[in-house]
Amino acid sequence: MAPILQVLQEQGEMYRHDAIDAVIKKTGLTDEQVALVHETTGKSVARGRISWAASYLKQAGALVIPKRSYFALGPTAQQFLSLDRPIKVSDVKATPEWQAHSEYKAQQTATEGTTEQPAELSDATPEDLIETGFTQLRQQLVSDLLDRVRSITPEAFEKLVLQVLAKMGYGGGSLQSMQGVARGPDGGIDGRINEDKLGLDQIYIQAKRYSENSVGRPTVQSFVGAMTGGGCKKGVFVTSSTFTADAQKFASDLRDQRLVLIDGAAFARLMIDYGVGVEVKDVYKVAKIDQDFFAEDE
Asked: Computed from CA positions of residues 153, 163, 238, 38, in that sequence, does the dihedral angle turn out positive or negative?
């Protein structure tokens, strides 16, 4: 919050997007930090936090909106600038302006007959809290999926792998085009599928359903040998467990073939992303003001 006020103190009234860019420059954020996005929305984390910081400051009277999409210093800005340290949410909530706003919201809530949840006291923005909750739910779902996948038969796991690959577009997106894949002597998927609808390129696939054992280099090396013998240069090895470090290094060091190793956690995330074995439980819609709707006619 302090950098926003400092930028406005230095440059005066500013267009919102210019102010956000100035804050990013002032705080020295790297390109990688600016490029970081929320998994739930795909929007910039940094820009979102700056926008929320401006919203908090506005409710405390430290920032005002003199005209549409512009920021300027408010009547209480100087008391925050005089702190000469990072501004905390607790500083904002201690102001009479914030408390008055909170009392107004409480009255509105009581009138509407709803129960307002207690405000978060940390410096996390509401978007950060949503992202944290989403991440926790997703991690739990990955864990639950792994438990379920590891309990099915090896044959069922092979079919599941094909379903996910079909959803990803391999085999032209048709599970039927993947049936009849030749199976190796170990019962794994040791055959070829079309990478596209025309079958211009093909991929070897193998699946190993393990509960605990990691897949080591010898197993991966054997699969690469099958690829070489079949004249196939691309392969996908999927396991419900993990790959040893030696197996991963072997796959990454390949030059004549390309081999992708997908462990259990990564496979569970693919199941979630492509909607295989999962269903949407809840959908929460977050609305925002339509600035164009309230824009004055020019």
From this structure: negative
Q: What is the pLDDT of residues 123-153, one digit of tens each?
A: 677 888 888 888 888 888 888 898 889 889 8
**Domain 2-114, architecture per CATH:** Orthogonal Bundle (1.10)
In one-letter notation, the amino acid at residue 224 is V
pLDDT by residue (tens digit) across 228-252? 887 888 899 999 999 999 999 999 9
CATH 2.20.28.120 fits 147-273, yes or no: no
Q: Any idea where the domains of the chain sit in the sequence?
A: 2-114, 147-273
